[in-house]
Write a structure and sequence with these properties.
The structure holds 2 protein chains of 2 kinds. By secondary structure, chain A is an alpha+beta fold. Chain A contains 7 helices and 13 strands. In chain B, 19% of the residues are buried. The N and C termini of chain B lie far apart (85 Å). In chain B, strands 1-2-3 form a 3-stranded antiparallel β-sheet. Chain B has 10 helices and 3 strands; from the N terminus they run βαββααααααααα. The chains are: A alpha+beta, B mainly alpha.
Chain lengths: 319, 253
Amino acid sequence: MPIKKPAAIPSSEITPKATYLNRRNFLAGAVIAGAAAATGVAFRDLAAPLLTVRANAKIDGLQKSAFSTTEKETPYKDVTNYNNFYEFSTDKYEPADLAKNFRTRPWTVTIDGEVKKKQVLDVDTIIKMAAPEERIYRHRCVEGWSIVVPWVGFSLSELIKRADPLPKAKFVEFTTLYDPKQMPGQRTSVLNWPYVEGLRMDEAMHPLALLCFGLYGEVLPNQDGAPLRVVLPWKYGFKSAKSIVRIRFTGDQPMNTWQQSAPSEYGFYSNVNPNVDHPRWSQAKERRLGEFLKRPTLMFNGYDQVASLYSGMDLKKNF
Amino acid sequence: MKGIAEVRSQKSDCRSKTLSTVRFNFCNLTFDFCIRMNRLRLTKTIVFLAALVPLGRLVWKALHDGLGANPIEVITHSTGDWTLILVLTTLAITPLRRITRQYWLIGVRRMIGLFAFFYGTLHFLTYIWLDKFFDIHEMLKDIAKRRFITVGFSAFVLMIPLALTSTAWSIRRLGGKNWQRLHRLIYLTAILGVVHYTWLVKADRRKPIEYGIVLSVLLLYRVGVWVSEKASERRRRPAIPAPAGSRPEVTKA
């Protein structure tokens, strides 16, 4: 049986050698063009400057505080470029840029719950309630790093006294602004927004608890929690709520956001405690930014004057 | 700008089969550079240099105060990220070369695998040195107690035999089959690596999930290939054996 020869490929279908070679050249060209583009991106990445401009208004008439530490302050550029502020981003280097157009005026704070008179206060009214102090505090993050910051503010108790809570009020709850348009991190469900934190009344009334609106003698930079935040130096950083819009007095212990997110890892108290590890990492040591070796973490972050608030409590259970 | 550059192997330009010419067209001027190596060696050189870029970037930033407030954290995260990326890249080679029919890709797999081990070693070194300061006791406690460290450490340890047996001599010595079996450990390393990342993040699991998705696709591809091969094997075998009753009697000899 004759076997039919396959039809010859018409010469029109044969790719000319030059074109064939060109395909490779194109590929190689594409690779090199890609590399060139990558180099451009890399250059921007390598040359990216940190925001170190100090453009915020100075705060006059600062008083010194006996609570201040004499330890070396963490440079301004680190305090303002390394921020855990999940409302903007979970990347610590991004809030500085993402918060640069954040509107902090007009700004009001709602005071409600178990108080004699519920009211909405302008942030500038609150800031003028007492004389501003500079308080240089150690600040320990639950992640294992720490900084020393010259905050500006006055004791939170000054505001609480004026708010006049009822005897029923056993706790204070702070709520951060919820505004996904301005705070891109709130467009993700990384945490349950808005961010909520809380304190027991006696903790909130402790003179160390700071109502803060500045650092380094200037108005608080946006990425550090402007215009109004609290600073609780004996607790892990996340307890110090930022950009506060609501202060609610309540009889029940508030459910703070991180506890809600992972109850086995973050408790209500969250006092700095080298003897109680985070389930996933040790809290015995910390890295002070700018230092190479780790240093031991101190009980209550070295603020022993708060110890009496917790006498008789099992701090392993109430972590 | 027109075509930027082209690479080709040609006798005429470089007077040898094994040479490559890199031709740059820039503003209608053509520059030819003869590179004294063959195509695979050229590709390998490019891959080698590219794989050093993440390290170079870290060194450059370290020298120019560019690592930010917590340099050690940046170094830890970056070396960890690149270990995972390169492990996933080695796993992508087989699917890529089959799908694109660019079979030469196998030629760069070993190098990428060794770079994955290199970045894994750097990652482990930053942990044992800059986090634990060579306190072996602390480290062992960590490995036993913290599950994300346990799996991360396991993923790293599993890469050691693969790096040690990456030579052609080892392949001959072990025999292709055994060597291949041993090197399947890379699947475990990749899985443990992704689990390590997932377990260490505080709340934002988006990045570890991205790595997890890429890994799943690469593993599912292999499952798909395995299943279809099994199926075609079955098709090639003789048809279903005849029912027992109709089987012819076997007569004793």
